[in-house]
Structure formats: C-alpha cells, structure tokens
Design brief:
This protein is mainly α. It has a single domain, classed as Orthogonal Bundle (Cyclin A, domain 1). The protein is built from 6 helices and no strands. The protein is globular. The mean pLDDT is 92.
C-alpha cells in the first residue's frame, strides 16, 4: 500500500507511466492498476525505477485483461524485455493478484 504523498513524490514517474500507456493505447483500468502497483513497490534506487515502472505497466495490462506483450511494454517504456520479465511476477504476487491462465 502507498500514501497519497507517494503520488506527489513520484509524479514524474507517473507521467512517464501515463505516456507509455498512451503509446500502448491502454484503457483507464490498466493505467490505474499499473499506477497502484508501481506506487506500492517503488524502489529506492533511481536506476531501478524505469524497469519497475515497465513491470508495473505489464502487470496492469494483465490485471485489466488488456494484455500487451512484454516486448511492447518494454519498448513503450524504453527498457529491455528482460527488465519486464525479471520483475513482473514478484510485483504481481506482492499486489495480491493472480497470474493469468495461458
């Protein structure tokens, strides 16, 4: 869980998330879920934030049923697919969400 002040503190990152969601043409539910997941797991290291943002965006697409590929999400955020792959499952579990049945 996160505090309202976290939204202000990470406004720039949330703007980046929204811009990537625009590039992916995501709906409001996926955007909202991605923001919640990101804010609930923001790393301390600035270096790790972009990868976590991409993973949170991917988790948001899964949770909303608006799935995009890891590669598409990674490209929209500007990270490698491996960055998304490395973080998304842990973030999904931490958010209390179930993995999709593929």
């Amino acid at each position: 869980m996160y505090r309202a002040s976290d939204e202000r503190a990470h406004a720039e990152w949330l703007a980046d998330l929204d811009a990537a969601a625009d590039r992916l043409e995501l709906g409001s539910q996926a955007r909202s879920r991605a923001a919640d997941v990101f804010l609930s797991s923001v790393p301390e290291s600035e270096r790790s934030k972009r990868a976590r943002l991409a993973a949170a965006l991917y988790v948001g697409t899964l949770a909303a049923g608006d799935q995009r590929s890891q590669s598409a999400v990674a490209e929209a955020v500007g990270v490698s697919r491996l960055s998304v792959q490395r973080h998304w499952k842990g973030m999904l579990d931490a958010a209390g969400l179930d993995a999709p049945d593929w």
